[in-house]
């Protein structure tokens, strides 16, 4: 299915630099101090993490994105003060697609088609252009050790799971052995300096992006019983995270850890409004007539045993449409009282509120007809959106609560092991509100136009990874006495792209 977002418009941004023509003026250039490492030792830098560490962008992993990963950006700066070589498990091409033998295991990268994101192969096929075949085969192990141990999709407890390469092809192609762990492959390199970033993000992200179809496993201390879309128990996360840091610092390695942002601030959850439905008066009246029996029956069941529904809940379940713009979609909400004990037709549905988050992919589904040609089957109006299209307010709170608990464990590890900490949670919050300044740019989390988040709505652009690298260097300065910022050694985010051309193959 094509991933297109039809209401997005291409925005052309132009920047001009003004120079003075007055040659008579004189200025004294600021003399910056030389770059120093402080107490940090960068001779063997190892990065351990998930998709952000790998350089994943635009819904895929590909060479150009990997070369602009934040660890690679950092390693280039570290090289100026004693840093050694930095190796990455590069893909074989820039398609983003990956095979395992003959079977596809990763999709082509997203490109901007003029109105919204679209998979590269679909875009080229629409043009009648040849689609380049993927050349990366994850069944072929690279038979080497890499400084960048960033594995897309990895949750916290996956980092210590023996044989994780058999479950995740990104790690499988780079694992040192069939029974290797991500942590072991990183720690065995005996790093002098490490970054441990975005650990905890995937522990809530798959639950969130799936619309909360998984289970909040808080209270379940056995990850072997978790499903792919579940939230990791905070106690499990805390124990795993502490163990990871303890092993990485066992030989006195220094490092930077990062806290976990609220993933619900990402454009994957903020781009599609909860109330996108326009209706004329006749259609609104017809829809309201169809819901009249449901509304009346729900109100009649207030306080009736065995459910004993409250008036507040009954009012929240009322469905009403008006002529004009801004009608909220109808959604399923499994946290509502089960009224099917009275009547199977009384399903747990209501209209969305501003506290609910509609996932990005719903943009191509809302307003379609379940039965083509039948306006009484419009999804999101006559037919409620299923759980996978919506992160309800209750599910949002589960994500935030788990994230807060993860961050408490990360802060504790910072204090225990004396490491630098990057507050990516606050940085993302700023980007999603006022925007963050980087050089000549104000970067926001707006999809396509914001510059920070890539076309998949979750992962960063290369410019965003440059910002991430700068924030890490600032944290190193604060903890280890280096002077990346004072010496002018932060990178210029404007030197890094926000998207890649379809011709990049």
From TrEMBL:
Signal peptide: 1-20
Coiled-coil region list: none
Domain of life: Bacteria
Keyword Signal included in the entry's annotation: yes
Family annotation (SUPFAM superfamilies): SGNH hydrolase
Name of this chain's protein: G-D-S-L family lipolytic protein
Alphabetical UniProt keywords: Signal
